[in-house]
Each structure stands twice: as structure tokens, then as C-alpha cells.
Amino acid sequence: MSWLKDKWQALKERLNFSGVGKIAAVVVLVLAVLLSFLGMYWSSEPDQFDVVASAKEQAAERGYLNNSKKLVVGYTTASTLHTLVSTLLDKPGGFISNDLMPPGLFMDNMPAWEFGVLVQSRDLARAFRKEFSRSQSQSTEDVNLKIAEPQFNFDTRSWALPSSESEYRRGNKELLEYLDRLAGQGNDKANFYARADNLSDWLSDVSTRLGSLSQRLSASVANVRENTDLAGDSSARQSNDSGSYQYVKTPWSKVDDVFYEARGASWALIHILRSIEVDFVFTLQDKNALVSLRQIIRELEATQASIWSPIILNGSGFGMLANHSLVMASYISRANTAIIDLRRLLEQG
Length: 349
What we know:
Blueprint: H1 2-15, H2 20-42, H3 51-62, H4 75-90, H5 109-132, H6 145-152, H7 164-182, H8 196-218, E1 223-226, E2 245-248, H9 255-279, H10 281-286, H11 290-301, H12 324-348
Antiparallel strand pairs: 1-2
């Protein structure tokens, strides 16, 4: 053991452990602990909020909540979009995806969650610009929404000149002006059209997103899939032949990122669908589809259950360890199936 003592003594002398080296080591240790706790705090997901209460609170602050305390059609959905983007920017740690300093630099789960929320916000903003605010295909675009929608599609990694946050805040500012006009402020009033075809078009985008997330989550376990790209159309062609089957596997380093992206997307969709239930209530009742929408929300709420494991487990299907990705894929697939059924009701019911 004498050689070990000699090595330790030499190391202490080299680092001057009794002096500056000891102080530096303590500082580094304290800093690492503080950054770890700060990272854990920033990783906490925002709580769910009441979309109606949030919309009424915003309307009251802006001074256009009438005596009946009722909001105009479309206000709840537009306000929910505004709140979703605000939550991304103002939650603990702010918007982390473009951070260049620790602990944000070393975090990947929260940026993935942010991206999931942002994708759903972008799709809803596009629906507002293309469908919800327009009476027909020949009508003009809303002056505020045609600015807001591109702002939400700005690069998530830009940290300066301009930063992602500044562009998203500008989009939210334009959305707030749309809300003012929607509530009847000023001469140039905005509109929102709660029609079955508008809702069906947006749900088609949601279904596509959820289908992709479900496939990526399921690919946490390697498997071989038949190539169904051209199924159902004998005359269909594709640019590159990908073979009769495909081998799919999500890289192990991306499994938790896909999981948290799906979790963020589901969190955003829960709020959006709750606001859709408010603004499209008569359309849904007319199609006898209100219960179908509520079932979709219930399926997505299951994706927000507490995660008791310190890491996202990636067991092999029926193996001894759980596979969190497959559980998430199950809920999202069921929600997607319910959305497909809801679209059929809206189109044919």
C-alpha cells in the first residue's frame, strides 16, 4: 500500500491540494451540484391549465369580456394557442432549445418536449391562417395571422440576431392583435369559422403527426416492417425503390428524445382539443361527435402520467424491463385511431 500513498502524496503536491487546488475543487463541485439542481428544476414540465379560465382571464385583462361572460366563437382556441407559446417562453428556464450555456446546453429531454409543443402550435397557427379565419378558398388571409404563422416556424436553435424567442414573441404579438379584432375591437374585425370541413382539415394534420410519432416510438424495439408505401393503388409509383420490407430502429441515444417529443405534443393537443370542444360544440353536437372528441382527450391524458423511473426504460417488448416508448405509442395510436373515426363522422355524419 505504500506505493498508493506515494502516488496520492505526489498528486496532492502536483495539485497543491492544500491550497489553491483545494479551493478550485470545492468551487467546481459546488457549481456542478448547483447546475444539476437547476437542470432538474428546468426539466419539470408545466402543469396543465384550464383553457376556458385562461381565455376569460385574458379577455378580462384586455377589457372586452361582455356582461354575459361569454367569449366569441374561436376566442378560446386562439387564446389557447397564445398561451401555449407563452408557456414555452416563460416556463422555468425559458426556451431551452437554443441555449449555449449550462445547464441548458447539456439538456435534451426538455428541448424535445418543447419541440413537440411547438410542432402542434405551428400546425394550429397554419390552420388558423388557412382555414379557421377564412370563409372560403377565395377569401383573403387575415392580416395578423399571415405574419404570426411564419414567426412560429422560425429555427428553434437560433440564439441571437434574431433569437428564437424574439421571433416567437412577435408571432404571439400578432396573434394577440388578431384576438383583439376577433373580440370586436376596432373597425377591422376578424372572424373565426367553426365548420366541420375546417375542423376535419386540421385533424388530418394532427393524425399525420401522431401516426409518425407512433411509428418512431414503436421503433424503439428493432423490427422488420412490410413496405406499404404504395399499398392500395396499383398505378402508384415512387422515386426510389425501398424494397419489399424495411428494417426500422430508433437509435438508443434518441429514444428518450422521441418519448419527450411525443409527451410534449400530447400535452399541447390536450389543451387544443379542449378549446376545440368549446368553439366547435354545435358542430360536434350536430354530428353526434362530441363524445368521440372527449375520448381522444382521455387517451392523450394518459400520456401525461407521472414517470417514476429516473430514466426512460427501453426494454425489449416482452422482456423483463418496461418499455416506456411502447406504452406511449399505445396511447398515441389509440388517440390517432379515434381521430380518424372523428374525421369520418365530420365528413359523413
